[in-house]
Write a structure and sequence with these properties.
With about 290 residues, chain B is mainly alpha-helical. Chain B has 11 helices and 2 strands. Chain C has a domain of about 210 residues. The model of chain C has no long low-confidence stretch (mean pLDDT about 90). The chains are: A alpha/beta (about 400), B mainly alpha (about 290), C mainly alpha (about 325). Chains B and C meet through helix 4, helix 9 and helix 11 of B and helix 6, helix 12 and helix 14 of C.
Chain lengths: ~400, ~290, ~325
């Protein structure tokens, strides 16, 4: 036969051999992650990716799950629900993911969660805090392992009542998270401290992603509250603190609570510009848990990424481990079996045991609050003193009656 | 009363910063007849250059203030020679489209080089903190610096356009390019120079703004809309118009943000629309001859 | 190409499109639906840009308006989809009439900037008016019920929704085509080429521009109404200037001088985006480079460049 025909046949034979060879290797279990990878809060997605990758590397090194390796692809939600929905569809229908996790924005969660039943894969929320996704929007595919607004605000109200401040106002981002934070904070504060005064007509809700907070800083200072709940996060919080520092905001004697201020994303960006004597809340603080799992996790994370783990990183890390435990309990990688296994499951975590309540798929976990103290020179961020780890069961309200799983 | 005073002061420093950026847009439009959609991206590039020079090379603030805009001006010359020269003679829509493409390219390039997260740089030590004003107000020192830079730029530009030969040449090229060519003015040099100068101004704005704002890949998009509004309110191609427009927009942000926070997002556009309805060519714009 | 041959190809294309659910992988149904909706959006924009010569940077205001109209009706009143779409069309039409009234008095650059301003105003209202539009979180959590007219389709099924969108977009495009190729359309093209001459002929060019702008707004509203159930959410971004830029890009890509140009542009844009985003995060960079090249060297778009080349070859072949 001709030389060209021979070489073509050879090429085809080699290709076939390769194809057959690769088909022998077991198909990985695919996880799809949707996080904020761009914009003013892009570091949150970056850190989540780091946490998830650490978990996957650890699990794969020990043989994977049910003999199969884990793989992950993380894509950008751009902070828009529409984008997240498109990405989720692509991951399920084109990339054939088995499991999904993610969501840095409550707004995105509110849009994506109602679409999840069509996609039919379990979704673990590791950041978005709106109570709705395990409340009126709940469905059997949605799970959340992170602290939601309800739980965080219970803790916040406790701290706030303890400060003795009477008149309270808020500065929060103008979307679900900001408004709901105030809604629940004010409700719980009134329960714990009936004489608290809520300055309802002097609240400030700057647009998420606003660059200039000075008008809000000025108007809050003028209204002379005793205490302020700040639910800004990400780049907004960084901007806010720097601009507030310039205007002497933190020297006015207010009691300041930043509901998600203890995010290493924010603390690293601010360094010593984050003032001392501010109450910061977080879903997870690397320095407040003294157990073998946390020690191992923090050490491994610092070794891999040269910085202490943020709460977003820990959340993503635990999402992977939770899925692993659920799959092993179910014995299969089928959505319905995983969901049945995950509901009510208890998973060991750096924050103690993590239990997913069967009634609404929300994990019983409490926030950690602490007062900023001296600079931690080793980690280059503010340290937290007077740490309160709120216990999950005590800060989680009962299952929302609107959620019927 | 204190609140009003503070709001007015805020308006002033917002306004002057916008002026620096918008006047560059005006110069580019005046001389090149190009609406530079990428102007915000050049501002952003100035801020990132500042960051790169300060955080990366450890240069002091004053040096970066000098060098960052020059680097961006250099990039602008490259852009002009390689891209913009194709659309000078065409209708304005084409330049809008091309500079929009440029905007996408610059935005993504910044993301690729510096990542998608935010960066912060601090003002130099003498400019940190606040000064105490009468009435219990405190005003950041850095904002005073911005005011000074804005006023110096204003003065410098006025002198340039009205008292120097270079300024006259630029105005001539803006008014009538063919005539300028006939008069042996090297219009090609003027055009490239004008674009570079406009970019320099935008980047200066970015370098000045960098210690005040978070440096992130979205900052260019926000500022371009603001610059458009300033230029439209003031009048396309008008130098005093750019100042007026910038002050007006500064007031809208400062006062509107303070007293009407809910409407703050919409107010600038309402302002712009109102001006265009009654004075389509801006408060100080003149009808350009065809 | 002769008319019967052109019609044959068109019919064949339509049959292929209708049969797509059986031919292509499931995921491509979403892509195809998106292309159809955005194609209609871009074609409505081209009525203003390619035919009438006005560059609008606020066209997404009508798109967003249509999306919100349908989303709100589906969420609170559960109307059949066709009724919602009619309302979306009307909403886009009316909004375009109002905005156009202020804009068409101005030329070129000022027109572009004023449409940009109004577009962002609609965005701002959608973003801030939390009590009505739910602010930045948008209107979501609605389900698509019935189609209307007694037709019983499970619109939740992507294949079914795709076919419904196909039929509606084809019908709407046909209507748009008739408008573009009528004497009205000819006048619009004349206005683009030489407004003063048309004015000297005694025609009120401002009225014609307003009519074109209004009609375009209606079709953009219709496209928005189709988009809301597809995305499952109506959010303020649908009215943002970055959404307004999409039909501009698609029209330039496909070719503003031809009716099908925007559709081709929409197809290329969405396919490129899907393909490139699977390879890299820097999709916008490639888009920018492609757009820059198109504007500098291939100003007549893909369709224009290809057809020009074919015509040039035919001319060279002639003796």
């Amino acid at each position: 036969m001709k030389a060209s025909t021979r070489s073509t046949l050879l090429a085809v034979a080699m290709a076939a051999a390769f194809a057959a060879g690769s088909a022998q290797a077991a198909d990985p279990i695919r996880i799809g992650g949707i996080y904020l990878m761009s914009g003013s809060a892009a570091s949150y997605g970056e850190f989540a990716k780091q946490g998830a990758t650490l978990a996957i590397d650890e699990i794969n090194a020990q043989g994977g799950v049910l003999g199969r390796q884990l793989s992950i692809q993380i894509e950008d939600s751009q902070g828009k629900a529409a984008t997240a929905i498109q990405v989720a569809r692509k991951m399920v229908y084109q990339d054939n993911v088995d499991l999904m996790m993610g969501l840095d924005s409550s707004g995105v969660a509110q849009g994506l969660v109602p679409v999840l039943p069509e996609l039919g894969k379990p979704f673990m929320i590791t950041h978005a805090a709106t109570p709705d996704v395990t409340g009126k929007l709940c469905n059997k595919y949605t799970f959340r392992l992170s602290v939601n607004v309800n739980q965080n605000m219970m803790g916040a109200a406790d701290i706030a009542a303890g400060t003795g401040a009477v008149k309270w106002t808020t500065i929060g981002p103008d979307y679900a998270f900001g408004h709901q934070s105030w809604e629940f904070f004010s409700k719980y504060l009134k329960e714990k401290k009936p004489d608290a005064v809520l300055m309802e007509d002097q609240l400030a809700f700057p647009r998420f992603g606003a660059e200039d907070f000075t008008p809000f800083i000025n108007s809050v200072m003028e209204s002379k509250p005793d205490g302020i709940l700040i639910s800004l996060w990400g780049g907004d919080l960084v901007n806010f603190v720097r601009q507030a520092n310039d205007r002497g905001f933190f020297k006015q004697g207010f009691k300041v609570l930043m509901s998600v201020g203890a995010a290493t994303e924010v603390l690293t960006a601010l360094g010593d510009q984050m003032p001392a004597d501010i109450w910061l809340g977080t879903r997870y603080w690397y320095g407040s848990w003294d157990n073998p799992i946390n020690t191992k996790f923090v050490e491994a994370y610092k070794k891999a990424w040269n910085q202490p783990p943020s709460y977003n990183a820990e959340g993503a890390y635990m999402a992977v481990y939770s899925f692993k435990d659920a799959i092993e309990k179910a014995g299969a990688v089928e959505p319905d079996k995983i969901i049945a296994a995950l509901a009510g499951l208890t998973v060991p975590a750096p924050t103690g045991d993590l239990t997913f309540r069967a009634g609404d798929h929300q994990a019983l976990i409490g926030p950690t609050w602490g007062l900023t103290g001296a600079m931690n020179e080793a980690d280059k961020i503010r340290s937290l003193t007077q740490l309160h780890n709120f216990e999950g069961a005590s800060v989680t309200p009962p299952v929302d009656p609107e959620c019927k799983l | 009363m204190a609140g009003l005073g503070l709001a007015l002061l805020n308006s002033l420093d917002i306004g002057l910063l916008l002026f620096i950026i918008a006047v560059g847009l005006n110069i580019i439009f005046g001389v090149l007849n190009v609406i530079n959609f990428a102007h915000g991206a050049l501002y952003m590039l100035g801020a990132y250059m500042s960051f790169a020079l300060m955080a990366g090379l450890g240069l002091p603030f004053w040096a970066t203030l000098l060098m960052a805009p020059l680097v961006v001006a250099g990039v602008a010359i490259l852009i002009d020679r390689s891209m913009l020269r194709f659309v000078y003679q065409r209708e304005v829509a084409d330049s809008l489209l091309l500079t929009f493409a440029l905007l996408l390219i610059l935005n993504e390039s910044v993301r690729l080089i510096w990542g998608t997260g935010i960066h912060v740089i601090d003002p130099p030590v003498p400019l940190r903190g606040a000064i105490d004003l009468p009435g219990g107000l405190s005003y950041p020192r850095y904002s005073v610096f911005v005011l000074i830079v804005g006023l110096c730029t204003l003065l410098g530009l006025w002198l340039l356009f009205n008292r120097t030969r270079l300024g006259k040449i630029m105005r001539a090229a803006a008014l009538d390019r063919e005539m300028a060519q006939v008069l042996c003015i090297n219009t090609r040099l003027v055009i490239t120079g004008a674009f570079a100068f406009g970019a320099w101004l935008a980047a200066l704005g970015g370098a000045v703004a960098a210690p005040m704002r978070a440096i992130d890949p979205g900052m260019g998009d926000k500022i371009i809309i603001e610059s458009f509004i300033v230029v439209v309110i003031g009048g396309l191609g008008s130098f005093p118009g750019a100042l007026l427009g910038a002050i007006v927009l500064g007031l809208i942000h400062g006062l509107g943000g303070r007293y009407l926070p809910d409407a703050n997002l919409v107010l600038p556009y309402i302002g712009m629309a109102l001006v265009l309805l009654f004075k389509p060519h801006g408060l100080m714009g003149a009808r350009k001859s065809a | 190409m002769t008319l019967p041959l052109r019609l044959f190809f068109l019919a064949a294309a339509l049959v292929l499109l209708y049969a797509l659910p059986s031919l292509a992988p499931f995921f491509y149904l979403f892509i195809a639906t998106q292309i159809l909706i955005l194609g209609l959006f871009a074609a409505s924009f081209n009525l203003v840009f390619g035919y009438t010569g006005m560059l609008s940077f606020g066209h997404a205001a009508f798109f967003g308006m249509g999306a919100y109209a349908t989303a709100m009706l589906l969420q609170s009143l559960h109307w059949p989809l066709l009724a919602c779409l009619l309302v979306s069309f009307a909403a886009g039409l009316i909004l375009a009439l109002v905005i156009g009234f202020f804009c068409v008095r101005l030329d070129e650059v000022y027109f572009a900037m004023l449409t940009l301003a109004f577009g962002m105003m609609v965005f701002g209202v959608a973003h801030q008016w939390r009590s009505v539009t739910n602010g930045s979180d948008g209107i979501s959590g609605f389900s698509v019920g019935s189609l209307g007219l007694g037709l019983d389709f499970t619109l939740g099924n992507p294949a079914v929704y795709y076919r419904v969108v196909l039929v509606i977009v084809v019908l709407a495009s046909l209507a748009l085509y008739r408008i573009c190729n009528s004497s009205f359309g000819l006048i619009l093209r004349a206005i683009r080429q030489n407004p003063e001459r048309v004015a000297f002929c005694g025609l009120n060019i401002r009225l014609y521009r307003l009519a074109a702008f209004t009609i375009a707004g209606g079709f953009a509203g219709l496209a928005g109404g189709l988009m809301a159930p597809f995305l499952r959410i109506a959010s303020p971004e649908l009215a943002h200037w970055s959404t307004s830029a999409e039909p501009v890009l698609m029209t330039i890509l496909g070719g503003s001088g031809y009716f099908l140009g925007p559709f081709l542009g929409a197809g290329v844009f969405v396919l490129l985006e899907t393909w490139i985003t699977s390879l890299t995060q820097s999709w916008m960079l490639f888009l920018g480079i492609i757009l820059a090249l198109m504007v500098m060297f291939f100003r007549r778009g893909l369709l224009g460049t290809v057809l020009d080349a074919l015509q040039a070859r035919r001319r060279r072949r002639l003796p």
